[in-house]
Amino acid sequence: MQTANPLPADFAAALGRVPLGRLTGPVVYYAEIGSTNDVAATLAAEGNREGSIVIADLQTAGRGRRGHRWFSPQGAGLYVSVVLAPRLATERPDRATALLTLTAGVAIAEGVQDATGLAPTIKWPNDVLVGRRKLAGILAEGVHGHASAAVHSVVLGFGLNVLSAAYPTDLADRVTSLESELGRSVDRAHVCAATLSALATRYDDLLAARYDAILDAWRARAPRARHARVHWDTPGGPQAGTTVGIDDDGALLVKTGRGVERIVSGEVRWE
């Protein structure tokens, strides 16, 4: 693993000004790294590292769900991973784990709004949007202990586009950034601190089993969770339907000619 760098002074100062709840593990910073999720997973596998934070200025192998690449140019975004332990929830830890990605989406949207005034929306399961363009993405990955096959921690990574950047041609019409939307410069350190503080607050909700509060906040920011046309693939062939919300475990509900389908994972294509 590459050697960590000192945390930049502006990030250290910004993080010192906000409440971080249980996110009190070490903050590890890299000027350049393959993937912050990989570093955080190594930390988690070494023992109880709940609350550890990994931040990078550049990722050379950033990734999103289902192996998609996450474009991570130097200094243009926030590339952050944290080690969490939803199994510690006071009730239904399985439900806490299932809702972790949705919880993070709510927190990132709230942190962005707190830091900039911009009010992003959320698209199931892991996209933070402005209009129909992606502003941030989230990837949660389980970590197994050395002595057990059970998942004992979850690494939650997020990439948030802050500065305007020259995106690859295949992404240019599908992504956006805070600076592009606001028409002004944005302090990355301030946004980082605000999003992590919001994540700490919503993580507390998750561990305290305040699931209804999380779901209500998610639904309020997800207008396309209802009445949107979607397509997805099944072993029996392609399917299509209209979204009718999410259930209490965070699964997407889609009305089809056969009834209401419950989608837990997989690639959903939105019209």
Could you explain the architecture of this structure?
Strands 1-2-3-7-6-5-4 form a seven-stranded mixed sheet, sandwiched between helices. The protein has two domains: 212 residues, 2-Layer Sandwich (BirA Bifunctional Protein, domain 2); 48 residues, SH3 type barrels, CATH 2.30.30.100. With 271 residues, the chain is α+β, with helices and mostly antiparallel strands. Helix content is 28%, strand content 29%.
In short:
The protein is an alpha+beta fold and 271 residues long. 28% of the residues lie in helices and 29% in strands.
Percent strand equals 25-35%
SSE class: alpha+beta
CATH C-level of the largest domain: Alpha Beta
How many DSSP-defined strands?
A: 12
Cross-sheet strand order for the largest sheet = 1-2-3-7-6-5-4
Total of helices = 7
CATH homologous superfamily identity of the largest domain: Bira Bifunctional Protein, Domain 2
Name the overall outline.
Answer: globular
CA(first)-CA(last) distance: 41 Å
Q: Can you tell me the number of structural domains?
A: 2
- CATH architecture identity of the largest domain: 2-Layer Sandwich
* Rg, Å, rounded: 18 Å
Q: Helix fraction?
A: 25-40%
Biggest sheet architecture: 7 strands, mixed
Low-confidence stretches: none
SSE string? HEHEEHHEEEEHHHEEEEE
CATH topology descriptor of the largest domain: BirA Bifunctional Protein, domain 2
Mean pLDDT score: 91
